[in-house]
Amino acid sequence: ESSPIQQLHHLPLHQLNFILVLLRQFTASFSAFLAFPSSDQINHLQLPPPNQHMSPVSNPSLQHTTQQRRLSALYKHLHPNGAATAPDHNLTTKISPNATLKFGSITETQQQSFDVESMAEWLLGPNTNQKLRQKILAMSKADIIRTPMLNLPKEEQRRITTEQIKYILASGEYRISLMKQNPSEMMQRLECMTFFPASASVKLGVQLLLFSGSLMNLGTERHKDVLRRAEKGEIMGAFGMTELAHGSAVQKLETTATYDPDTKEFVINTPSKNALKWWLGNAACTATLCSVFARLIVKDQDYGIHVFLVPIRDEKTKQPLPDVIIGDCGDKQGLHGVDNGFLGFKNVRIPKDNLLNRFGDVTDDGEYTSQFSSNARRFGAHMGELITGRVSIVFSSLQVRRASVLIATRYAARRVQFGAPDRTGEQSILSYRSHQMKLMPILASCYVYEFSKRDLVRKYTSLHSPDTKISDDDLAELHALSAGMKAVFSWDTQKYLEICREACGGHGYSAYNRFGSMINDHTIFQTFEGDNTVLVQQLGGFLMKEFAKQFQKNQVGAVLNMIGSRIGSAIATINPAQVFTNPNVKSSNFQVQAFRHRTASILQTCAQQINNQRKKKGFVNAWNDALPQIVSLARAYVEQYALEQYVSQVRRVKNRELRTILKRLRNIWALTVIKDNFLDFVNIINVKPESIRKALESQCEKVSTHAVSLVDAFNIPDHVLDAPIGLSKGNYMDHILRYAIERNPGNHENIEGLLEGILESNDNLTTQATSRPSASAERSHQSSLSEQTLFHSSTEKAESNGDESDVESDSDDEMEQ
Fold first, then answer.
1. In degrees to the nearest 10, what's the CA dihedral of 218, 220, 225, 226?
2. pTM of this prediction?
3. DSSP code at position 451
C-alpha cells in the first residue's frame, strides 16, 4: 500500500512527467557509475496494480478514470514500444540484460534506434576538420548573423546582409587564395557557408567564388593586391557575365573591350540595351569593381570573350563613376538581401593592366598573345571559373534538402492525428503509409547523394592541388559531371521542398517554418551558374563523345553508323534480366547493373535518333530533336554514379547496425528511381510495378522507425534550422506560439500570461499522445532497442531469407565485389 509505484499512482500527471524526465537524465549521465540490480531482479520486476477498488478488472466502469489514464501514461513512458494501453492489473516487463534505452532529440518517448553520433561522424567523413566546423558554427551564432529579416524592406535586408558579409570576411576564414594552399579544407569552409542565412551565403559566394575567384584563376601577379583587398572585404566586387539578351550563350555576349595602343588602355562599351550587364549580385548597391566579360577587339580583330577589371563606383563616396550606368534590378522571388543590379558602359577607359591576362594578353603596341591556338580552347579555359560555383551549388542544394526533410520528419514524429478506435490516443502522422512514402525517399536521397557529392569535391580539389596534374580528359569529365550534378541536385531539391512543405500541413505554410523562404531562395539554383537544361546537355554531350573515342576520328557520326552492333552487344552483357533468373530488387548487385543498363539503353536511343535524323535535318536540328532523351541520359548517369559511390562506401562500414539501416536507405532510393522512371527499366528488371511499389512501401515503413535518428545525424543545430516545428527539443506547439508572440508587435503584452494554463495543458497532451508507428514498424522498432545482440540476431535472421530479406546479405556484397 505504500510502495513507490503506488504513491506515484496518486500524483498528478505533470509531476509524474517531471520525475520521469529527471530520472532519465540522471541514469543517462551516471549509469556507468551506479550499481544496478541483478539481471534476475530486473527481469522479474513487477509494478503493483492500483488499489483493488480502483482496478478496472474488478470495476470495468472505472476503466477510463483519471487515475487509470495516469497509470496508462506512466506505463507508456516506461514502455514506449509496448502495448497501446497498460495491462489491466499486472504490469510486468522483461528487460534484456544487454538492453540500453536511448532517447532521441524531440521528445522523451521518441527513441534513437542506433548510435546517432557514429552515423553523424560517418556522414561527415573522416577528413572533416571538426575544429574548423565548430569555429564557423560559433560565427553563425553572432547577433548580426541571426538578425531576423522576415518582412523587412529589401533595402534593410540588403544593409543587414552587407554587414553580415563584412563580419564573415573580417574573420579571415574565407579567403579564396586558401584554395591553392589547402583545397580540401577550403571546400569544407564553403560547405559550412550553409550555416549562414541564404542571402548572406549567396552574396558571400559572389564576393568569394565569382569576383575574387576570377582574380585568382584568370589574373596574374599584377592582380594580387586587388585580390588581397577583396578577400578582406575592403572592396566589394561584382561578376559581370550575364547580359540582358544573353545568359547561357556566353560566346554571344555583345559588350566590347577595344584596345587603344596610343593610350595603352581598353575602352569598355555597351553597344545596345541588349548588352546591359544584368542580374549582377552586389552591383545595385555595394560593388566598386566588376569583372566584366567582354569581347576583346585588337586592331579590328575579335579575339572572343576575355575578362576585365572595371571600376564602377568611387571607393569613398560609393557614387557611380563617370560614363558608368548603374541600376537596380528590383524585387525578386527570393534572396532579398542580395542587391542584384545592371551595368552599362559608355566608352569607359581602363588601364591595360586591368585585363585578367592568365590565358591571353596584349602587348603595348597591340599584339595579341596566348598559349591557346584556338578561340574555343581559350574560351573553355575562361569558363573553367564556373566549376567552383557549380560544385558549391551541389552541396548547398543538398544541405537545403536536408534541412527541409529534417523539419518535416521531426514534425511528423510529433504531430498526432486520428487513430484506431481501440487506441487511447491519436497516432503520429509519420506512422501513416502515405506520409512515409512522401518523406522517406527524400531522406534516403540525402544519404545516397552524399558520396557522389563527396567524390565530385575530391575531383575538384585535385584540380587545385599542386601535387596533382589534371589531364584534359579529367578536366572535361569534371566540367560535365559538375554541370549534370548541379542540374539534377537542384531540380530534385526544389521538388522535394514543396513535398516537405505539404507534409507539414498548415504549419508548413507559416513563414517561420522556413519552407516558403527555402523554396523562394533555392529556386534560382536551377538557373544561376548555368541553366539546368543547358547544363545536362553538357553532360549528355560528354557521354556521347566519350563513347565516340572508341571509334575512328572521334566523330559521333562514325559511332552512330556502328551503334547497332556495338552498343547492343554491350547492353546484352550487363542486362540484369539475363544475369539473374530470379532478380532480387533489394540486391545492390542487381540495382547497380540495372542502373548501368538504363544509362547504356538511353545512350543507344539518343544515338540512334540522332543518326536517323542527321542526314535529313543536319546535326544541330537532329540534336535538338533528341534533347528530351539527352536530358534523361544525363539524369540516368548522375543517378548511376550516385548509386555506385554509395554502395562502395557502405561496404566499408564495419558497424553492422548502421550498415543494415544504410542498405535500407539505398533500397528506398533505388526503388523510388525505378518506380518514377519505370519505362526506362521496363525491359531490364523483369518485375511488375506492383512488386516495386510493395517493396518500396515495406522499406519506407521500416526506415520510418529510424527517421528521427537519421535526420538527427545531419547535425544541423537549432539556431541554424530556426523553424519552430523542427527544433530538436521542447514542445513544437509552444515554439509556434512563442514565435508568433515574440515576432508580432501587434500581440498584446499580457498574452503570455493568458496562455500559461494553455501551455501547461499542451505539455500534458503532448506527453499523453504517444508517437507510435504502425504494428509491424513497432516490432522492428522494439527489436532495435537492444544493442548488438538483439539487433544482430534479427538482422541475421532477415538476411538469411534470401530474396525475401529486408536487405541483401553481406554475401551479396562480396559477390559483387
1. -20
2. 0.79
3. H
